[in-house]
Amino acid sequence: QVQLVESGGGLVQAGASLRLSCVGSGRTFSDDTMAWFRQGPGKEREFVAALSDTGIYTSYSDSVKGRFTISRVNAKNTVYLQMNSLESEDTAAYYCAMRPTWLPDLRLRNADEYGIWGQGTQVTVTS
After folding, report:
1. What is the Cβ-side half-sphere exposure of residue 96, based on CA atoms within 13 angstroms?
2. Strand-by-strand arrangement of the 68-73 sheet
3. CB-based contacts of 62, cutoff 8 Å, min separation 6
4. Closest by alpha carbon to 104, among 64, 68, 57, 56?
5. Cα–Cα distance between 88 and 21 in angstroms, integer?
6. What per-residue confidence (pLDDT) applies to 44?
7. For residues 124 and 29, what is the distance between their CA atoms, to the nearest angstrom?
8. In this predicted model, what pLDDT tens digit does every residue of 7-34 receive, in sequence order?
9. Residue 18, SS3 per DSSP
């Protein structure tokens, strides 16, 4: 059974940093595109960042570009989201997701294009 498990969330003050981790199990994910989405209170799930299988291609939402960095260590079946300069607007449940191939940006940012999801980890940023 393929599973993704996120960790690393927490309660922090504005301006702080956090690193989220997403560990996959059940098979190797080295050929898959990995992504992070988030869902804030009363909001729809939104795209945060995506990374291609080899790490050559990345995509970020405008709201996190320059503050967040997505990375992966395929040997560990793990993808990370380094979040710096956190803002109260970043408060959300963060979800890891995967799909087999890279896509044009508009589709890449659509949650419906991802078939496997983790259970989420909560990030709360206080101002």
Report:
1. 31
2. 3-7, 18-25, 78-83, 68-73
3. none
4. 57
5. 21
6. 96
7. 29
8. 999 999 999 999 999 999 999 899 999 9
9. strand
**Gyration radius from the chain CA atoms:** 13
- Residue 52, both tokens: 């291609």
Q: In the numeric block, which tokens belong to residue 86? A: 């956190």
AA identity, residue 32: D
The angle formed by the CA atoms of residues 64, 69 and 74, to the nearest 5 degrees, is: 140
Residue 102 to residues 69, 94, 95, 96, 111, Cα–Cα distance (Å):
18, 21, 18, 15, 13
Pairing of strands 10-13, 121-126: parallel
Joined together, the tokens standing for residue 17 give 């940093």
